[in-house]
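Worked example

This section walks through a single chain of length 337. The input is the sequence exactly as stored; nothing has been trimmed or padded.
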Amino acid sequence: MRDMEYVTSLFAQKVVATAGDEVDSAAMLASVGIAPDDPWDAGQMVPAERYYDMLEKIADQIDVTDLPVRTGASMRLDEYGALGLAFKAATTLGASYARVERYARLWTSVVEYELRPTTGGTLLILHRAGERRLGMRLSNEATLVSAVSIARQVCPMPLAPVEVLVRHPAPRSTAAHEEWFGCPVRFGAELDAILYAEATLARPNILGDEGISKYLTSHLDAELSKVTREPVIVTQARAAIAQALSEGAPKMAEIARGLGLSARSFHRRLSEHGLNFQTLTEQTRRDLAKGLLQDEGRSLAEIAFLTGFSEQSAFTRAFKRWVGATPATYRKDTAHR
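Given that input, the structure is written out below as tokens.
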């Protein structure tokens, strides 16, 4: 399960509970491999695609306009295990979100979080690749809501973001979203993100404790090391792709041959770990570009070449699609962290 895309079963159980008697809860949970009497355990994982399928089945039966809001609002830190405790124990809200940025992989492999300083504050960005199918859109909305819900559980005073950004088009009504967030919610944006004022992130948490926080993060570091070890074939493929990029977009058959495999065997081996060649190439290009941008001595044109683009403009468009900012903006923002 760890080598494929997964999400915590907690979200699946929460959304079914929130949907209520209008859906067959046992059947919905069974569709993602959860028994009705299974405990609510954030460490139990379900395949992401099956979770999206389940959300779409629910949407076929009931109006789901505000279901993500109600689901995300019901999330409780005590249900997140050690990660929830570490979020509570962090001394400020910004430090709490830094825990999410670092340790989110403990409950999902489909989402990466990023804290990015910007005009007017700091963005908590939700990166999730893939087709914006209905199930993913509902999941993204619930995730953004839950990120604010858990923040309100540690904040000593009422909390509202400056703005919430959502990449996909607006649902039939956005009234429930704006009422719950307490700020403008802009659909059709370039990012899925929450914008916080710096003063909000600097607020001390109710139960912040530096000593406990250090103890918990050491435990989480140990857990993280268990789930982030890549299979050897994936590590080797990433390295081969990175080396080949300066000659243009690599071809699967050539990378496979370099690894001593046929294209068919290479495809099968990647599939066993929930990957395909195109996705792995995109991830490698993105990660390589982000690393090269840390080196101020490299020009954008050189980085474009090293990541397999024949023109800087094509690199800029791709990078903006990957992270929601141009390479120049990303370099400037990371330099000021």
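What to look for: The chain has two domains: 6-226, 232-335.
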